[in-house]
Structure formats: C-alpha cells, structure tokens
Amino acid sequence: MGRLRWTGVSPKSIIEIILSQHSVSANSMINKGNVCTHVSEYLPTLLKNRSLYSCSFIGKPNSPSIRRFPPLKHFFHSTGARYSAERDYYEILGVSRDSTRDEIKKAFHVLAKKYHPDANKNNPSAKRKFQEIRDAYEILQNPQKRAQYDTMKEQPSNNTENINYNYGNGNDFRHTYSTQFSGSFQKIFSEIFENEAENLTQDIQVELSLSFSEAAKGCTKHLSFDADVPCDSCSGLGYPLNSTPKVCPTCQGVGRVTIPPFTATCSTCKGSGRVIKERCRACKASGVVEAIKDVKVTIPAGVDSGDTIRVPKAGHAGRRGVQPGSLFIKLKVAKDPLFAREGADLYVDYHISFTKAILGGKVEVPTLSGKTNIQVPKGVQPGQLVVLRGKGLPKSGFLVNHGNQYVRFRIDFPTALNERQRAIMEEFAQEEVVNEDYMDGEVNLWQQLLERVSNPKFVVEFSLLIVILLLLIKTL
C-alpha cells in the first residue's frame, strides 16, 4: 500500500481516474440490471453480490465487460512485471541491458546487502530502496519476465494495451489480473486493500544521560521530546466527534476484505467497518498532530552505558486506530570519581598510612549503601585487595543477584620526618639489619647442612659409621 500512497492517490481514486477518462455510456458497467457510472457505485454493487468479498464472482455470463483502457504510469505491485516505462530496472541494479544473469545476480547481492532494512534501521528510505532492488531482480533474473519487460520498454509511451476485464466468473477475473501483471494475485490485492504490515507506526529513539549513582541505584526520569500525539479536537478519530458514521461501502461493515485464500484489513475504513466523510480540520483527518510528548520512565538499577530501554506504546501515536510506536532510550552513564566499574563489580582505592599498613587496624570505606568498617590485615602490601561480597551492582544470575566490591589499598609514605621520628626509624632500620643478618645466618647454616648431606662422600662415610655401630651392638 505504501507504494500507492507515495503517488498521492489511493487505489480507489486510481480506478476512478481510469473510468473518468471515458464517456458515461462507455464507462457504465452492467451488474444485474443496475447501471454503475462510478467506481464508488460499482464496488458496493460488486460486494453486495459476494462477488468480491467471498470471491464467488456471481454475475451474468453475458454481462458486458469494462471498456479497454491504457495502463497507468504507476501500478499495483506484484512479483511479475510492473509495466511502467518510467522505472528502469537495469538502472536500479546498475547493470547494462546486455548483462548476463550472473552479473545481475552479483549486482543484486551487493545492493541488497547495502540497503537491507536490518542494516539501515535508522534510514526509512532504505526499505523502499531495498524493495525497488528486489523488484528489479525478480524481473531481470527471470528470462520470460525480462523479455516482456524489454519489449514493453521498446514500445512508445503512448502505446495502448488491449486488456479485456470480464467479471463473468472468478477464473476469468483472476486469470485476467494474473496474466496482465505476470505475478502474484495476492500481492496485487494486498496493494489495493492495504497490507497490515504497512500500518506500522514509527518508533522514537532518544538518548538519556545518567549519573553513576542513578545508574547504580535506579531512578525515575521525565522525558520530553517531539512526537505525533492524538489530536485533541477529534480525540484521534480523524473526524468531528458529532459526525455520523456510515457503513463502509468497500467491506459492507465487516472491516476486512477477503479474496481467498487472502484476507486483509479494509483500507477504506481501517478495519472499523464504518466511514465518515467529514474530516477534522485540526489534524486533516490523520488523527494525530505534532506536539511535545512527556513520558515518565523508570530506570532499573545496574544499567550501564550503551544499554537501551524500550517503552512500548510511548513513541509516535498511531494514525486512526493504528497501534502507537515504541520509545527506545539509549543510556549514557557518567564516570564516578570514587567508584570504578567492571560489569557488576565495583573497585575502590583506599589510602592508608604506612604505619597502618604495618600494624593493621580498622578503617571506614565507602560503599553504595553507605560507609562500612573493614579490617586492614597486618603487613598489607600496596595494591592488595579486600573483597566485600554482595556490595556491588545488581545483576541477574542464579542465586547471586549482586556483584562484589573490592577495596584496593594504597599506602602513603611520609615525605618529611621530625628528629624523634627519624631516630625511631633509624633504630628500626638497625634492628631490621640485625634481623636480616640473623636470618641470613640461619639460612647459611641450613644451606651448609643441606650441601653436606647431599655430598656422596658424606653418604658413604655415614653408611660405614652405621655399619660399625651395628656390629658393635651385636658383639655386646
């Protein structure tokens, strides 16, 4: 349906333009004795007899057919040839008219990868471009369709195609359309009656900056942004509130149009089964107007930069009953001067004096929930970590729902000493030297003993000594 909407006219109005080009006598269609001189009269008549809605196509066998008319410049989409001289499929794929199928296939894969909607989510025009590329490939990769297309391109633009549309029975009706458009019957009528997949409201993406504390603990934010909102004048209906709705002439109030085996929402009434000819002047019958939208959002605890939060139905308001879009919030978390983060774990650097590092003791360190006391081990080394389990950020996991906090000790050494402190330190240094000498002596003694025992000569001497002692004990 989107391919018809961008031309500025609806499928129904296109048919009316076609019929209006002929005289009343030539344009009139006979259906059970009723003369229909306008498409708006013809469609209800066709539907009343279940000819289009149930696809029974009941009618007089000898009923006159619609007069022949030339093809338009814009057509219903199908996988077959879209007979438009203004669309150059070779130019769309960037190939020449004498290109081989392999060259066409290669060009298609390159362009399809470049303009695929999944790779261009922020580019709405990429979807239309991708569809054009796919349509061109479907025609040019098929030898028969390509030959038909080349023949059509060579004909003058004012050439008239003789097409006879006869509604005598369903097979003739279906065959006429499938032959003329060389493609899917379903795709043709999904264009006329509007495929529901096209009725999607655009989403909105915004960026939200958070402090480290807000991201760690969670918070509530109020966002304001430009968006389509329901019209206040008509409450989003698209027509004045005091208007009287009438039964939709296209679907006869059902809200859906069926051409077996396909069923689609009626494009005339958007599935409501009722239509109103009056239009709301404030929103021009769209049901939405541009305004500033305010949304209250709850940010969960533990989020990080790059995370995205989706708020359903908080995007653009849908036009006349279409579901509203979603709001996507991309988060950006500021750095914290105290805490460093690695996933759900937190790291804190805590400075202590060198005497505290030597003697140990208790210190008070910050956490997300406030300050807490921890024990400094005696003789702690610079960079040594003490873990506070469960004091980190929230996380999802089996049994464990919080990370850990690690306290990294930084030892501050004095840069200036008074006389007494210097004397104490010198005395400590001397004792440290004595202790080092004593330890070195003990180490040397044990080292000599080990070397003596491991000597082979010592082993032989020791063995002889043991034998002599055993002989003496036996003689006694």
Automatic annotation (TrEMBL):
Residues annotated as domain J: 88-153
Alphabetized InterPro entries for the sequence: DnaJ (IPR012724), DnaJ_C (IPR002939), DnaJ_domain (IPR001623), DnaJ_domain_CS (IPR018253), HSP40/DnaJ_pept-bd (IPR008971), HSP_DnaJ_Cys-rich_dom (IPR001305), HSP_DnaJ_Cys-rich_dom_sf (IPR036410), J_dom_sf (IPR036869)
Pfam families given in the database record: DnaJ (PF00226), DnaJ_C (PF01556), DnaJ_CXXCXGXG (PF00684)
SUPFAM superfamilies with a match to the protein in the record: Chaperone J-domain (SSF46565), DnaJ/Hsp40 cysteine-rich domain (SSF57938), HSP40/DnaJ peptide-binding domain (SSF49493)
Domain CR-type: 218-292
GO BP annotation list: protein refolding; response to heat
A molecular function GO annotation: unfolded protein binding
GO cellular component, one term: cytoplasm
Stretches annotated zinc finger (CR-type): 218-292
Keyword annotations: Metal-binding, Repeat, Zinc, Zinc-finger
Domain of life: Eukaryota
Name listed for the protein in its UniProt record: CR-type domain-containing protein
Species for this entry: Solanum chilense (Tomato)
Lineage of producing organism: Eukaryota, Viridiplantae, Streptophyta, Embryophyta, Tracheophyta
